[in-house]
Amino acid sequence: MNNIVLCGFMGCGKSTVGKNIARKSGRKFLDMDSYIEEKAGMTVSEIFEKYGEEKFRDMEHDACVELAGLEGLVIASGGGAFTFKRNVEAFKGKDKIVFLDVPLGIIKSRLKNDKTRPLLQRPDRDRVMKDLYDSRYPIYHAAADIVVKGKNTPLKSDFQKNQPFSFETPRTDGLFCGFSSDRHSSSSIHTKQPSRHFCKSASQT
Q1: What is the pLDDT of residues 46-94, one digit of tens each?
Q2: What are phi and psi for residue 47, nearest 5 degrees?
Q3: Per the CB 3.0–4.6 Å rule, which of 16, 71, 73, 99 could disulfide with 144?
Q4: 124 Cβ contact list (under 8 Å, min separation 6)
């Protein structure tokens, strides 16, 4: 395994969890959208406004290919990145793709005061979030090698506990070393055999 790549809906905690995994594992954390912004010299919102979604998605794919060629990273992908099969294929087989599976209700609560995501600055944001969440959920699940179910805030998840960290040594019960999954835990981790379920286009990250 070269990199750990986190995917999931906006507000699921990819950055918070990713930084903590990087700290515990000695890897470098990298946010994919920030990587694109740094290369483009403008924000994601500005890229969408000036060039449109198609151009951004091409830049996003280029970033996936470039990052997949590196090693030792924990990567927080953009919310829409893994809804495109070509981006999943850039990482598949070389890196470990982890889906942070957080219920929509919790995500809505986390993002209720968000002023940075253009997609949410609209009166029908709840409907938009539900439609996107429902369409993206099976796609994230299909792309993932590992699914982490979380019902708590990222800072209270099992990723934050002071335990040995490893994604590389599977236990006989299908979980991975370094995480708790007993009935008192707020999150659990399991491996899966992903199916092929992708869409050809997606709305803004």
Answers
A1: 998 899 989 999 999 999 999 999 999 999 999 899 999 999 999 999 9
A2: -65, -45
A3: 99
A4: none
Tokens describing residue 8: 């999931």
Name which of 39, 53, 48, 103 is nearest 83 in CA terms: 53
- Residues 33, 37: Cα–Cα separation, whole Å: 6
Reported for 129-133, long-range contacts at CB under 8 A and 24+ positions apart, including other chains, are 129/104, 130/104, 132/9, 132/203, 133/9, 133/104, 133/107
Residue 74 bridge partners (DSSP): 4, 29
Strand partners, 6: 76, 98
In the beta sheet, which residues pair with residue 148? 100, 189
Nearest to 137 by CA among 89, 198, 192, 91: 198
Alpha carbon 47 to chain centroid, angstroms: 21
pLDDT in tens, 136-161: 999 999 999 999 987 654 544 444 44
